[in-house]
Amino acid sequence: MRPSRVFRWIVRLFLLVLTLSMTIVSALGAMSAALILGDPNNIKIPSGPIQSNFTITDVNSMYLRVPFNITNAGYFDLTNLKIDFKVLMVYDHVNLTTPGVNTTTSALIFDKSINFPTILHKTSYNGLFNASSGDGFIVSNFPNATIDIDWTKTPYPVEFYSNFSLSASYSLDLISFKVDAFNVSVGHLNSPFG
Amino acid sequence: MKMGTAKNMLKGILFTIIYFATTMVIPYLTFTWIKNLEVMGVPIVMSQLEYERILFWISAFGLLISGCAFFNYSSPKQSIRKAVFALIQIILNSLYIWSYKFSGATEVHFEILSVGALSIDFQQMIILYMGIYFLTIILKGYDLIDFTVNRHKIREKRYSKGGGGE
């Protein structure tokens, strides 16, 4: 056999090993995605009741606790797990544009991301997204509770909705995914004064 | 028709079928499956336009690759023709993989009905595949030069075996 052919076979063998490895990783990655995303019990956010205190007149007492459960049913470890939580406050703003007219307004009052540890394959992780003592709350976006909010609005003068996202990587960080949820009700206020 | 030629034709048809299955049928079935997937118990919706765009590029390059596979695998071993078609095929393969990126298939977004959205990003994987294809392009380029420079030696060997078509 000519030396050039020997060299060619060596390179070809190297490429074959690379291609086979990638194909196996891709196939297992696709199967992992199917296993994780296919079962509604694998990603549970929240996995229990959301605990919150949105008393906007006392920032230090505000907190948000969201329990979640993730089951990594795939073949690879779930890495770079990150949960991003945003809370919007919806209320009727008094005299915003026209005197005597209330305008429904939303304000971003909470924004926080937390990174969680790697979830090994075939294991479950019970986590808690925890923000307390005003941590993550954007005080500068709070309306003035005394003069801005129409407290006569029904059924609730102030409502809180969250937009949250969960992102993670798997298949040796070659594939990443993100699940977003919008307008999830997390609480309401009747009056911060009573 | 010589025995060797018939064997090469058969090999060409066989590899055309294999490439047709791997570049068109399997991706088509995969994306159709993804389109009907349920996440957190809720059906997800892939926009029809995005789905059709992805399938268009997969079909376009899949057909070209399958066609090239026939000419590549039906050509005699170590022939310049085989080297040329192998090089064209691997370039098309790279474009095929790259088409996953520009058709939007590497960052697929789905709407989870009345709940939110899901996005899957496998750009890193595609880039790694591109690296493998780049090495393969070098190998096929090397083959083309080798077959051209040593064409007399290769022909002598081929005819001394009495094949002609191999």
Describe this structure in words.
The complex is a heterodimer of chains A (194) and B (166). With 194 residues, chain A is of the alpha+beta class. Chain A has a single domain (3-189), classed as Immunoglobulin-like. Chain A has one helix and eight strands. In chain A, the strands form two sheets. In chain A, strands 1, 2, 3 and 6 form a four-stranded antiparallel β-sheet that branches. The radius of gyration of chain A is 25 Å and the shape is elongated. Chain A starts with a helix and ends in a 5-residue tail after the last strand. By secondary structure, chain B is an alpha+beta fold. Chain B has one domain. Chain B is built from five helices and four strands; from the N terminus they run H-E-E-H-H-E-E-H-H. Chain B has helices spanning 3-35, 48-74, 80-102, 123-149, 151-161, and strands spanning 38-39, 42-46, 107-112, 116-121. Chain B has a four-stranded antiparallel β-sheet. In chain B, strand 1 (38-39) and strand 2 (42-46) form a beta hairpin. In chain B, helix 1 (3-35) packs antiparallel against helix 2 (48-74), helix 2 packs antiparallel against helix 3 (80-102) and helix 3 (80-102) runs antiparallel to helix 4. The model of chain B has no long low-confidence stretch (mean pLDDT 82). The chains are: A alpha+beta (194), B alpha+beta (166). Chains A and B meet through helix 1, strand 1 and strand 8 of A and strand 1, strand 4 and helix 4 of B.
